[in-house]
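Issue 218. Parser rejects a valid record. Input:
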Amino acid sequence: MEDQQIVELYRQRDESAIAETECKYGTFCLRIAMSLLSNGEDAKECVNETFYQAWNSIPPEHPEKLQPWLGRIVRNISVSLWRRNHRQKRYSGIEQALNEMEDAVPSPISIEREIESTELGEILNSWLKSLPHDHRVLFVRRYWYGISLSDLANECGISPKKLAQKMYRLRLALKVFLAKEGIFHAEDR
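Output the parser choked on:
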């Protein structure tokens, strides 16, 4: 079923919208949640919460593309759950990706002092748009959706070591770009 047909089911308050969404995007959403949480039960809970939020959001929202819209919701729910549970030291799924980004992006405290978060988002979007399509997709899948290096490497048909080097070069390029934009000085890290 096409996205707009599924959205129309939501707009009509037809409960089959949830079943259609789960059929088409359930695996996608579960994969995002699992990559961030590394816990099957919590990941399933996040996916169910995603479908619940979709039910409550459409209408008034009318997403053109359902997959990235659902991906954003499940990611935000998963990150929130990870933060709650991380205080209890239960998860390590997203820690590696966050640690990799530590050197490229300054701490949130210094960002808040220097620019507003919307400006940082615009700068990051500008940098992402400057990348070749395949690099942009890799970067977003790794650092937004939290897909593991080994999974990405398998999908790309390259070794995890080679992909890790590519991701390192992307993070360095981001760091240089942020320094040029005045977000922080390269020697700050």
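Fixed in the parser; the record now loads. The two ends are 48 Å apart (CA to CA).
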